[in-house]
Amino acid sequence: MIKRTVTKLSYIVIYIVFALSPIASHTLGKDIDTQVREIASLLMCPVCQGQVVAESNSELAKNMRAIIRKQLEEGKSKEEIIAYFVERYGDSILGAPPPKGINWVLWLFPALALTAGTVIASFFLYRSRKESKDAETDITEDNPTAVEIEYIKKIEKELKEFDS
Amino acid sequence: MKILGTTLKLLTFLIILLLLGLFGYALFGNRATIHPSPLLGTEAPDFTLKLFNGEKLRLSDLRGKAVLINFWASWCAPCREEAPVLEASWRKYREKPVVFIGINIWDDKDSALSFLTRFGGNYPNGADPKGEIAINYGVAGVPETYFIDPTGKIVGKYAGQLTSEIVDYFMEKSLLGSKNTAVRENER
Questions:
Q1: Buried b (16+ CB within 10 A) or exposed e, A34-60
Q2: CA-CA distance, B147 to B165, in Å (whole number)?
Q3: pTM
Q4: How far is CA A72 from CA A2, A82, B114, in A?
Q5: What's the pLDDT at B182?
Q6: Cβ-based contacts of A47 with chain B (< 8 Å)
């Protein structure tokens, strides 16, 4: 009985360990190199053309990565480290512009463009579909098209010639 | 159908208007806001610099004096051009409550010392090998110069080669101290 309970308990412990391991690895398992890289990839290198700090080999970028590492070791959060650089270099240091002021246009423009594109495309699809539907309903025996009229005329003419 | 047509025209008009607005902002917008130095008008970050002569210099010990901090490197051509200007300006202002500090960055000590011997820089000079002081000031290139008033506030930043007129202009602002408002950074 006791043996069975111990076995059951050990199964439960193993299950809990396995179940919690992804959460643990997500929160604690990120090594410092990954964290440095993550933060450095959010910051633009001030002396480079369109390169983030994580990718640049410039002296300044190396120094910046060292400062990120040092601040992480001091226990500072990602947000605090980013704020440190923004306080010194301004918003232009950020890889993505913060959603404020004129920057809202940059954030909203893709959504607006997508909406406008969808509306315009829907309109044209609706119109072309309606036109083809109208054309279909127009073609009846009582209401022949111009081509059909031409064709009928030709047949009538040939029949007359045949009769005569 | 007619309503849809009108909506479409209105939408196209709005999109064109928005694009023109963005284009106009890019052309005529306040470009100074693109690269402002957020540190202007704020207290200068304190630091202790180990000078090439072995002494240590702490910025906070210089309260009551106007301070010029010049970030430089031996491989930087504009730094060579401005070195004699800085030397001359230092001689001009040294009788006044003014301190010039040279901070060598992204360099090696031998090259830095050879530079100082060749191009001048008799005012306190030291190295910032880890670039910590430079980053604390938001330095993004060399030469870059910061002007601090006697109360310890940054009143000016100049990115690029200095001339004696530029030094005079900013030194005047620095010496005026707190009466003066922050001077906008020049365009790089």
A1: eebbebbebbbbbbeeeebbbebeeeb
A2: 14
A3: 0.68
A4: 48, 11, 37
A5: 42
A6: 140-141
